Amino acid sequence: MTKKNPKPKIPIHLLPWLDALAITAWGILMLRYWLTNKLSLLIHPNYFWLVIVSGISLIIIGFFKMLELWQRRRRDVVPNTQHISLFPPGWGSTLLLITAILGFIITPQVFASDKALQRGVTADLLGTTRVKPQAFRVTVRPEERSLVDWVRTLNVYPEPDSYTGQKVKVQGFVIHPPDLGKEYLFIARFVLTCCAADAYPIGLPVKLPNNQERYSPDTWLEVEGQMITENLSGKRQLTIAATSLKKIPQPQNPYSY
């Protein structure tokens, strides 16, 4: 007695609709990240246009796919559902749809001190070998340099004594590397070159004033002071001698470029 073939878990006539729904959901998700200002947490602004165009294109493709399926359904035409896939029919589209739904539910998170420590933060300057120097702006006054500007400046001329006494005013989040004393903290930011997958931290050590309160990791600060040279972990390092530390809210776009 021959056994009947088991029925597929997803009815055959629903598979094309599942494809169209997955395509449309991903298009909507891309535009949602853009409209809610979450896209800057995922990719460099230079590539926003690509995501926007892709999102609109996917929505258009999904819409016309659904329209075609609806017209076929009214004519009682059974669509061709043959797929060349390593997975059973419908699995690929189901996984894409589930991933898109998770994207709507889960909010992208900003990288913080724990991620910086995982990537090997020490008392040495963060990211000095990776920050590209072409954005170096020699005409910027010291107190107008951002944290990234300072690191790029050091890439061009790394002698810390050359900056002694220069004023500094930078913003970033707090890191407490294990090899720094209690009288220091690190002020840092993450730099995006393409997307969040290649984000890396850069920053500078900060020498705290006497009796200064200890700030918890990931606290965003605006630090004012002047540059000095300190011996940290057996190496001369450009350090901010802070005269003012002010808590600030996390910027809407916390990354640098």
From TrEMBL:
Membrane-spanning intervals of the chain: 12-35, 47-64, 84-106
Domain DUF1980: 155-257
Name listed for the protein in its UniProt record: TIGR03943 family protein
Domain of life: Bacteria
NCBIfam families referenced in this protein's UniProt entry, alphabetically: TIGR03943 family putative permease subunit (TIGR03943)
Record's keyword terms, sorted: Membrane, Transmembrane, Transmembrane helix
Natural source organism: Nostoc paludosum FACHB-159
Pfam families (UniProt xref): DUF1980_C
